[in-house]
Specification:
259 residues, alpha+beta, Alpha-Beta Plaits, four-stranded antiparallel β-sheet, 4 strands, elongated, membrane, transmembrane, SEA domain-containing protein, transmembrane helix
Length: 259
């Protein structure tokens, strides 16, 4: 078979000319020229970013990987920040607890020291060893009391009621005394006499330990001490007691040591 060779015309009318950079695509016969390598590279990049159905572009594989890497980098930083804040809060809480404990301990130690300092060694005594008696006799006047025949007899109801009230008053006076309270034994009303006002005769009895009796007689249980405690009590009587029948005139107080 003879093959006829035809020359390719250079005129645009005779056929398309191919530039040195273009190749004729084989296959479909459409005669479309292939693109240059630069153009193909650009098309490849565009092809990697297909359009979505609504016309928006979708991120490429490289963009997705970059975002994922950024997210992985952000999460540890965020966790480290949260952990650091938590540690600071725990440390602050521990400091506050330590301060509160120290304050409570300081208060407790201070109270214990104060209690130890205020303990009076004289408060520890055995009253069963107080066997030596010491008595005082005297009298006082009841200016608000009118003398009656029943008061002349100590066994009468009126005398017993008045005597009981006065004895309770004297008992409270001396038992509440810091200096004399531990040694006080009893107070007795021995008689009522008639004068310009009612006069009451009384007796006070104290007991003391034998080994300290000399010192106590000269100081704590001296006549001056016992008398001054009684007189001060009478001056400190409430104003409303001055009008009562149990009121004792301070200036009328007399006291003698009973030998």
């Amino acid at each position: 078979m003879d093959i006829e060779l035809q020359a390719i015309g250079e005129n645009g009318k005779d056929g398309a000319t191919c530039s040195p950079n273009e190749r004729v695509a084989a296959g479909n016969g459409d005669g479309g020229a292939s693109r240059t390598p630069d153009t193909a590279e650009k098309d490849g990049l565009l092809f990697g970013q297909p359009a979505s159905s609504n016309g928006e572009t979708v991120s490429s594989h490289h963009t997705t990987e970059a975002q994922r890497t950024l997210g992985n980098t952000f999460c540890p930083r965020k966790m480290n920040s949260v952990c650091r804040i938590s540690r600071e809060r725990v440390r602050l809480l521990l400091i506050i607890i330590c301060i509160v404990v120290l304050i409570c301990a300081a208060i407790g130690i201070s109270l214990a020291m104060c209690a130890a300092i205020n303990v009076d060694g004289d408060d520890n005594f055995d009253s069963s060893s107080f066997k030596v008696p010491r008595s005082f006799n005297g009298s006082f006047q009841l200016p608000n009391r009118v003398f009656t025949e029943e008061l002349s007899t100590l066994s009468s109801n009126e005398s017993q009621a008045l005597a009981a009230g006065l004895q309770e008053k004297l008992d409270h006076l001396y038992r509440s005394s810091p200096a004399l309270g531990r040694y006080f034994s009893k107070a007795e009303i021995q008689a009522f006499r008639n004068g310009s006002v009612v006069i009451a005769d009384y007796q006070l009895t104290f007991v003391m330990p034998e080994e300290q009796q000399d010192q106590l007689r000269n100081f704590t249980l001296s006549r001056e001490m016992v008398y001054n405690v009684f007189r001060q009590f009478l001056y400190d009587q409430e104003a409303d007691e001055s009008g009562g029948q149990m009121y004792i005139a301070p200036v009328s107080l007399n006291m003698l040591l009973r030998l």
